[in-house]
Amino acid sequence: MSARKFKDYYSILKVARNATQADIKKAYVQLAKIYHPDLLESSDPKKAFKEATFKEITEAYSVLNNPRRRSEYNLEIYELEKEKAANHSDIDGMARPPPDPITYELSEEEKQALGIQLKKIRNRKIRRLFIIVLVLFGIGWYFKLKYIFLRMYNRDINNKVIFKDKEGVDSEMIEEVNKKFVQELQRVREEREKMNIMRHPTKKMTTTTSSKKQENKEEE
């Protein structure tokens, strides 16, 4: 681990690990009033010390004031403390629980930024799911249309399906498909005839009457 990982930025800024961004900024401003080089007198015997301290304060603030860098830093502390706990357990022979993860309260700005990121992630997942559904839907329609095309291509003038045993298609399956198709075709025709009767009942009755008259003439 680098030296930076051993620096306790929370202690440098004198804030708790669960401090808010507002608390961190407030602490930085207060410390800057004491250690900022522009506010130091040249005759101050602790000038060099204060300048070095202010560099550490600035470094700590640059990390803790950035939500992403702060999260990474908190994770580094957690891993470091967990490693120390494991080393102590090896020495005294007693297992110790790992430290609790570092948490802090989010500011309104951080909550808003986090919400935007979560919304983007959610939208990406929705888009991926939509694309997957479209692909699966397209594959399904491809095979369905292929079947319809083959069925129409192999139909003769009497509307009887004449599938040929091509491409290794099982003959029993072809026979079953032909049978179902013919049944379906007959059902559609019957429904169309019923619809025509319902739409033109007078025409149907006239046709029936004419047929009966023709039959009577033939009998005479």
From TrEMBL:
UniProt entry keywords in alphabetical sequence: Chaperone, Membrane, Transmembrane, Transmembrane helix
InterPro entries, alphabetized: Apopto_cytoskel_mod, DnaJ_domain, DnaJ_domain_CS, J_dom_sf
Cited CDD domains: DnaJ (cd06257)
Superkingdom of origin: Eukaryota
Residues spanning the signal sequence: none
Family matches, as SUPFAM superfamilies: Chaperone J-domain
UniProt xrefs under Pfam families: DnaJ
Annotated transmembrane regions: 129-150
Domain J: 8-77
Region described as Disordered: spans on this chain: 194-220
The protein's name: J domain-containing protein
Native organism taxonomy: Eukaryota, Discoba, Heterolobosea, Tetramitia, Eutetramitia
